[in-house]
Write a structure and sequence with these properties.
Elements: H1 3-18, E1 20-21, H2 31-37, E2 48-49, E3 52-53, H3 59-76, E4 80-82, H4 88-99, E5 105-109, H5 126-129, E6 131-135, H6 145-155, E7 159-163, H7 173-183, E8 186-190, H8 195-199, E9 212-216, E10 227-231, H9 233-238, H10 242-250, H11 260-273, H12 276-295, E11 304-308, H13 317-326, E12 329-330, E13 332-334, E14 348-352, H14 354-358, H15 363-378, H16 392-404, H17 407-420, H18 426-429
Parallel strand pairs: 1-12, 5-6, 5-7, 7-8, 8-9
Antiparallel strand pairs: 2-3, 4-10, 9-10, 11-14, 13-14
The structure holds pyridoxal-5'-phosphate.
Pyridoxal-5'-phosphate is lined by residues 25, 87-89, 92, 116, 118, 163, 165, 190, 192-193, 216.
Length: 431
């Protein structure tokens, strides 16, 4: 018996219960999703796809995977679904590997503009295996399709990514489709962050405009940690071999045996996301984000906010993350477009409403939470990041110890704990 690990799991459950999770890529799954994840399906090997496995004993696994695929196709209105990717990053790499030869040109939104690492960032293998061209947002923080067109004409990508990790605006899938068409590129939408909102039809779907969709299953979709690759009719029309290419990209290209317990949990999450209550949930995510944005004097068109903290001082993202965490509010530090500070010590924070909304919080609660956030952010004044880089590490250490002693922060933490405890965690309490 690993008492230590079970004790730590209990502690993490308690941290989640009394804290406010505002990282926009996090969420709480249902009890049924947890049940499937913790089931004996984890014991099975099933390399291959339904009806074509490399191991025996897969009749039941075949039915589970086929059901997950059916539910995915139905929910998103696509023709085919691969539900085996271990997570979002390998799903994206499998798409690149399936559709583009190594050394070929891919294009995506840069990390600093709100794209994901796997869309061709320098630190990601996607830019080492492929020639990655990155487009940036303009001064207004939005993607400028004229710039994307110019880059596409110049570099003739084989594949264009359209997706977001820290971009609080609606994506113009139709505009991207024109660009992809003009250069003959595959267009792939990575809807990892917004797939729950797309499934619930509260944000526009890319289905009619793109060839392929990738999504993690653990963000707004509220499933287990995993991912899916969805193939549209448009994709099949463009390339009749596309499904086989993508399947091969996943297995045997990149992965071995699928995680069948995760596949089952994905199927359950997809079923849950097709219920009317899920649409209400998705609508509430957006309403909550609007209230939060108004209170924090910023704008959003989806579930996430990118807060530029420059009005409080220089390079305050890390300090804000630390101070808010001490207050029981979890966010992540994030670069803002054209960040004058640095990627590690950025000028902003990213926060969102999916997890809080899963706990039943509504507009009134957002106002309350925003007032705590504003109060904490005010405390950052005077704690500007040192311009001299070697001083930064010690500065942050000193900042953390000072904040740990801050009496008002301790009080806020107590207030947050009492408040959060009134909103149960779905997977721990529901039936
Ligand atoms: C848009 C997008 N794509 C892909 C990923 C990668 O997912 P994972 O962390 O499961 O590898 C993320 C995760 O944050 C994401 O936001």
């Amino acid at each position: 018996m690993s008492d230590k690990i079970f004790e730590l799991i209990k502690q993490e459950e308690q941290r989640q219960k009394v804290g406010l999770e505002m990282i926009p890529s996090e969420n709480y799954v249902s009890k049924n999703v947890l049940k499937a994840l913790g089931s004996i399906l984890t014991d099975k090997y099933s390399e291959g796809y339904p009806g074509a496995r490399h191991y025996g004993g897969n009749e039941i696994i075949d039915q589970i995977e086929t059901e997950a695929q059916r539910l995915a196709c139905q929910l998103f209105g696509v023709k085919s679904a691969i539900v085996q990717p271990y997570s979002g990053s390998p799903a994206n790499l499998a798409v690149d590997l399936g559709l583009v030869e190594p050394g070929g040109v891919i294009m995506g939104l840069s990390l600093s503009s709100g794209g994901h690492l796997t869309h061709g960032a320098k630190a990601s293998f996607t830019s080492k295996i492929f020639q990655a061209i990155q487009y940036e947002v303009g001064e207004d923080g939005k993607i400028n399709l004229e710039e994307v067109t110019k880059l596409a004409q110049q570099h003739q990508p084989k594949l264009i990514w359209v997706g977001l990790t820290a971009y609080p605006y609606t994506l113009d899938f139709a505009g991207f489709a024109k660009i992809a068409q003009s250069v003959g590129a595959y267009l792939v939408a990575d809807i990892s962050h917004i797939s729950g909102l797309v499934a619930a039809k509260v944000l526009p779907s890319p289905v009619q405009y793109v060839d392929v969709i990738t999504t993690t299953t653990h963000k707004t979709l509220r499933g287990p940690r995993g991912a899916m690759i969805l193939i549209t009719q448009k994709g099949l029309d463009k390339d009749p071999q596309i499904v086989e290419k993508l399947e091969k990209g996943v297995f045997p290209g990149l992965q071995g045996g699928p995680h069948d317990n995760v596949t089952a949990a994905i199927a359950i999450a997809l079923q849950e996301a097709s219920q009317p209550q899920f649409k209400e949930y998705a609508e509430q995510i957006l309403k909550n984000a609007q209230v939060l944005a108004k209170q924090l004097e910023t704008k959003t068109e989806n579930h996430l906010l990118l807060l530029d903290l420059s009005m409080y001082g220089f390079g305050l993202g890390y300090q804000a993350q630390i101070a808010l965490e001490l207050a029981g509010i979890t966010v992540n530090r994030n670069t803002i477009p054209h960040d004058p500070a640095s990627a590690y010590y950025p000028s902003g924070i990213r926060l969102g409403t999916p997890a809080l909304t899963s706990r039943g919080m509504k507009e009134e609660e957002m106002v309350k939470i925003a007032s705590w956030i504003k109060e904490v952010l005010e405390m950052l004044k005077g704690f500007d990041l040192p311009q001299n880089q070697p001083e930064r590490k010690d500065f942050i250490k000193e900042f953390r110890s000072q904040m740990k002693e801050n009496l008002r922060l301790k009080e806020i933490k107590k207030e947050v704990e009492q408040f959060a405890a009134q909103f149960p965690l779905p997977g721990v309490t529901d039936e």
